[in-house]
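S2.1 Query sequence (SCP2 domain-containing protein)
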Amino acid sequence: MANSTQLKSDALMEQMKLHMSTDAGKQLTKKIGLVYQINIAPKKLGFNEKSFVVDLKKGEVKEGKYEDGKPDATFSFKDDDFIKVATGKMNPQIAFMRGAMKIKGSISAAQKFTPDIFPKPSKM
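Output structure tokens follow.
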């Protein structure tokens, strides 16, 4: 059952995959050049997490854990909190201080992980 869980974040990660192939996405790879692993839990951190790799060296986003060594930084979120941070509704520093986001790895790499790297939701 855990694998079939549909996360709100799935749609955002799909948009991110498309965003990586645009000029704006290519600029991100030049500017940031880091690899992030994002673990997203439906309800509680550490349980039934789905992992995504946002590779801003190669310019790709894929589901699963990072397999080429260690990512520069790994983040853990609950699904709702990830959406809030990625859409700019919650400041990443505040999310971290509240325990809504956990970070492993390089703090300087983590500080470059801002809502700016995500595509803006299209206005309907």
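Residues 45 and 67 are 22 Å apart (CA to CA). DSSP finds five helices and five strands in the chain.
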